[in-house]
Write a structure and sequence with these properties.
40% helix, alpha+beta, five-stranded mixed β-sheet, 692 residues
């Protein structure tokens, strides 16, 4: 943008590496054979590219915007010596070739006028409307004189907030950065490196997330050349030495065409050479490159069903490499990308990677959100969801980014968090208990899901169920998992410092850090997790309520399974003339029967009272022990004894021996205990007895 605007005669000589231009769009393409006198004709290149996508487009607005941009930038030059108007023209041509609609192209022609000239936003709004004015404002940098060192991060914050309302803002910024990167050779090497690093850390991930692969791949190559010149040169030489490598792919492509013609499938088979960074990555992955590794085969068809027809034909006629198959049509990537990926081996053993997609999928794969035109034009007859316009780009990552950035007023924290967030370039979808979806970065845990769903209310989260099974907060989630988060009723509880080790999203990290900073003393040790057993005694008499047909035999209930009416029970005689009563399903019964111990018949007596031992499994939280004892008392049971084991991995185990006035009330008591927040299981004691 304006970093390259300068006054006549003040531009520096070209220094350092020669300008890198991997595709096209040189000065001659914009200006024609003559210079200043032919400058107005440059808009013709934009008009031609625009009409290729929009044959009925009204070019009057573009011409009007060009006249204003050219007149306002007149007298300004880039550091390369070119008239400054070549920059907005180049940016606009990039977007026009990608298929941007007229409003975006108008704003791109004017994107530097408010920043670098006397044109005001009000003037743009008056002459071109509120939408164009919003887009221009979105990409206008904040003044360094006002913001100092915070100008760059705050400019990106402003731009991202604007993108949250209109993704076309970022489309213009990406095209602007691409042209600046193409012409970066006139900058000092240290400035080239600084701009390249920001492009690598912020702009390239944003291009990936918006699906604009055409811009992303070229930006990657330009950054690669600046930050890793030796590796870039090695890759360039490797590609040059294998210039005939595509011959192998061409032969396979001919075989594909013949097979598809025979199957009566109308398809276009193209060879797509890999860009520099892609070749570099494959070389690192394979060590030694095959001739077919320098490109991939792209097959374009008309309909979605044709994609699968092509896939079936290729897998029938050639040997498929099953590990390479991916279906991004049935499950599109989070950036709108759709395609079938596979790899097949030809008769000579050469393996070719294949992309199969429709023409529309290909357009979106290359241009991403730019290919959607104006995504905010209401569809005729469609009702807005929940009173809001639906955003077809579905940028869930952008919604999360906009939420957490509000919690980071500090520019340095925002800048660091932004880079960390964008470094997570893969996304998963998990489902809440109510069926709604949550988008999270790959590797996210239950901690991230909690803060994504509940915000600061997640401070009181005490656990989760993942796919119906109990899980700790540190559990890493997979794509398609269902997550049911459990919150404590006590709002005074807070997150554990350990959660920071498992948080992948800035929203979770920022919220946890803020809470911990505000509560340096932490949370008081929860009453549900004392460090020593806490025996409680109710003082009631012990009654077995079981009858055996042995004179003067003492009957006692086994502590390992705590039988109660109407359990099926059996007994075993022990030393001292006593009989120990077990549930028939108790493991101790099988052990004693196995060693030849004779069982003693047992029946329940008429007394309604019984004693039982229950195990409650829970997540630790304040007041849990008090809530459990209150529920037990409410069901009319008396606590004979209770122990609470030290917590492990935020889980607490409670053991209660209870005296019930009636055994029939046991199921209701267990249900009531399970309903206590934080308790995820209540069961009868079932542990090996030391002796029978």
């Amino acid at each position: 943008m304006s970093a390259e605007a300068t006054n006549p005669g003040a531009h520096s000589r070209r220094r350092g590496r020669a300008r890198i231009d991997l595709r096209r769009l040189g000065r001659a393409a914009l200006l024609g054979p003559a210079a200043r006198d032919r400058l107005p004709d440059a808009i013709g290149h934009v008009a031609e590219a625009h009409r290729a996508h929009y044959p009925e487009a009204d070019l009057a607005t573009l011409h009007k915007a060009y006249v204003l941009a050219e007149s306002s930038h007149r007298g300004q030059f880039r550091k390369s010596g070119e008239p400054y108007i070549t920059h907005p023209l180049a940016v606009t041509l990039i977007l026009a070739e990608l298929g941007a609609e007229t409003t975006t192209l108008t704003a791109s022609l004017l994107h530097d006028t408010v920043e670098d000239t006397d044109v005001t936003l009000e003037q743009v709004r008056t002459e071109f409307g509120a939408e164009v004015s919003y887009l221009v404002d979105g990409v206008t940098k904040l003044e360094k004189v006002d913001y100092g060192a915070a100008a760059e991060p705050e400019t990106f914050r402003k731009m991202l907030v604007a993108t949250g309302n209109d993704v076309r803002v970022m489309s213009i910024k990406l095209a602007d950065r691409l042209h600046n990167m193409r012409t970066l050779g006139v900058m000092r090497p240290e400035k080239q490196a600084r701009i390249a690093r920001v492009t690598r850390d912020v702009l390239i991930p944003l291009a990936e997330r918006l699906g604009v692969q055409a811009l992303k791949t070229e930006l990657e190559d330009l950054v690669f050349a600046i930050l890793h010149p030796e590796e870039y040169e090695r890759t360039r030489v490797l590609i040059a030495e294998n210039s005939d490598a595509c011959n192998a792919l061409a032969a396979i492509a001919d075989e594909f065409r013949a097979a598809l013609r025979e199957a009566d499938i109308n398809a276009e088979v193209l060879i797509r050479p890999r860009h520099f960074v892609s070749v570099h990555r494959v070389r690192l992955k394979r060590s030694e490159l095959r001739s077919t590794d320098f490109g991939r085969l792209l097959i374009l068809v008309a309909e979605d069903a044709d994609c699968y027809a092509v896939l079936g034909e290729l897998h029938t006629c050639f040997t498929p490499v099953i590990s390479e198959f991916k279906d991004f049509i049935a499950a599109p990537k989070f950036n709108l990308y759709q395609s079938l990926h596979t790899a097949v081996a030809g008769p000579d053993g050469a393996v070719a990677e294949v992309l199969i997609r429709t023409h529309q999928m290909h357009k979106v794969a290359e241009a991403g959100v730019v290919a959607l035109g104006n995504p905010y034009v209401p569809v005729e007859g469609a009702e807005p969801a929940d009173g809001e316009r639906a955003d077809p780009t579905r940028p869930g990552w952008l919604s999360r980014l906009l939420e957490w950035q509000q919690s980071t007023p500090d520019p340095d924290t925002f800048w660091t968090s932004l880079r960390a967030d964008l470094a997570q370039d893969k996304e998963i979808t998990v489902f809440r208990a109510d069926g709604r979806a949550l988008g999270l970065p790959a590797g996210a845990s239950c901690v991230d899901a909690a803060y994504a769903q509940y915000g600061e209310e997640a401070h009181s989260c005490i656990g989760a169920r993942v796919n119906g099974r109990l899980a700790t907060m540190s559990t890493v989630l997979g794509d398609g998992d269902t997550v049911h988060l459990l919150l404590a009723q006590d709002s005074s509880s807070g997150p554990s410092p350990e959660w920071l080790d498992h948080a992948r999203t800035p929203a979770a990290r920022i919220a946890i850090t803020s809470w911990l900073d505000a509560h340096p003393e932490g949370v008081a040790a929860p009453s549900a997790a004392p460090r020593r057993p806490a025996p409680l005694t109710a003082g009631r008499p012990v009654s077995a309520n079981a009858v055996v047909d042995l004179p003067e035999a003492t009957v006692r209930l086994a502590g390992c399974c705590t039988p109660v009416p109407p359990d099926a029970v059996t007994g075993f005689a022990v030393r001292g003339g006593a009989v120990t009563v077990h549930r028939e399903t108790c493991p101790a019964v099988a052990r004693m029967t196995g060693v030849g111990r004779a069982p003693v018949p047992v029946r329940w007596g008429d007394a309604p009272e019984c004693r039982v031992t229950l195990i409650a499994e829970s997540f630790g939280r304040p007041r849990l022990l008090a809530d459990l004892t209150e529920v037990i008392a409410g069901e009319g049971a008396a606590i004979v004894s209770a122990t609470v084991e030290p917590p492990t991995q935020q889980r607490v185990r409670h053991t209660y021996t209870l005296q019930l006035p009636d055994a029939a009330g046991l199921p209701a008591l267990m249900r009531a205990m399970r309903d206590v927040p934080g308790v995820y299981d209540v069961s009868r004691a079932q542990h090996p007895a030391a002796t029978a």
